[in-house]
Amino acid sequence: MPTVPEISFAFGLTSGLLTLGILFFVYLLIEAFFLWVAGEIVVGRRVTYGESIRIAFFGTIAVVAAIILLGQFGLLISIGAALILFLLIVKGSYHTGWLGAMGVSIVSIIVAIIIFVVAIAVLGLSLRGLTGL
């Protein structure tokens, strides 16, 4: 029995969107954890994990929108605008200045690297298959 292309396309699109939604949700939870830890270290302000999820969500939306909307003006302009928007969101959420927002962003990256390196070491994973080494 032949398949109807429209139906198979719809199921493929639905499963793809569902997968994308799940991955985006997991990404938000992970990024929010890094932002939460960095906020505690740098600013010392007690932020809830829920606030960190909100920062991660709106930060991600702002970065993607800036890159998509300003991409036609050049990569540096769009990435610069995305960085400024993300720092503005962090600055407002943590009630800190620009240096505090940059500190939170940089420390969240450092925390992510440390956690990933420790997880790789504990799990005994190798990146050789990914890099072709």
List keywords for this structure.
133 residues, mainly alpha, 5 helices, globular
Report on the structure:
The protein is mostly helical and 133 residues long. The chain has one domain. It has 5 helices and no strands. Helix 1 packs across helix 2, helix 1 packs across helix 4 and helix 3 packs across helix 4. The model has no long low-confidence stretch (mean pLDDT 84).
The proportion of residues forming helix, as a percent range, comes to over 70%
Percent range for β-strand residues: under 5%
Radius of gyration: 19 Å
Residue runs with pLDDT of under 50 for 5 or more positions = none
SSE-based structural type = mainly alpha
- Give the integer mean of the pLDDT values: 84
The major β-sheet equals: none
Number of helices: 5
Count of domain modules = 1
Distance between the termini: 47 Å
Element string (H = helix, E = strand): HHHHH
Mass-distribution shape: globular
Number of strands: 0
Characterize this entry briefly.
The protein is mainly α and 133 residues long. The protein has 5 helices and no strands.
